[in-house]
Write a structure and sequence with these properties.
Blueprint lengths: L4 H6 L6 H11 L9 H13 L2 H12 L6 E3 H14 L7 H18 L6 E3 H10 L1 H7 L1 H5 L1
Antiparallel strand pairs: 1-2
Length: 145
């Protein structure tokens, strides 16, 4: 089985463990607690050569922490906090926590199109496909390879 030990070690100066856990879960195609070589190839193929829809679906899976097909505000908050920790921001610092909450609020307003408190895959796809920055960033690998 493939190990993400190298991923954990590559970000020693930040707290990457929480974000690495979420990425590991998204790479674990069979949901068996391990990443097989096949899982790795399927995921990398999706991220590097998949359609915009496939890449967005993978991203949605990354954010849908409990796998129920919906992204809640708390799930989005957990991901944002993990990314902030990965970037070196300190958890439980009032200013950093406020910035993270503000970011969650902005993203949630943008993605929760019907404002019902959850983000479905349909809302996620629609909102992301309307955003030029998102679509350009998803197409970045198309020009690089």
């Amino acid at each position: 089985m493939f190990s993400l030990f190298f991923f954990y070690e590559s970000l020693q100066c930040t707290d990457s463990s929480l974000y690495a856990h979420y990425v590991f879960k998204a790479f674990d195609v069979n949901c068996n607690g391990a990443i097989s070589f096949r899982d790795l190839l399927v995921t990398l193929s999706t991220l590097l050569r998949g359609s915009v829809y496939e890449r967005l679906r993978w991203t949605f899976k990354l954010y849908d922490l409990n796998g129920d097909g919906r992204i809640s505000r708390s799930e989005l908050s957990e991901i944002v906090m993990a990314i902030h920790e990965l970037m070196g921001r300190r958890p439980h610092q009032p200013e950093d926590d406020r910035k993270a909450r503000d970011q969650v609020d902005r993203v949630f307003r943008k993605l929760d199109l019907n404002q019902d408190g959850i983000i479905t895959i349909e809302e996620f796809l629609e909102a992301c496909l309307k955003d030029d920055l998102v679509t350009r960033s998803l197409q970045m690998f198309d020009n690089e390879l």
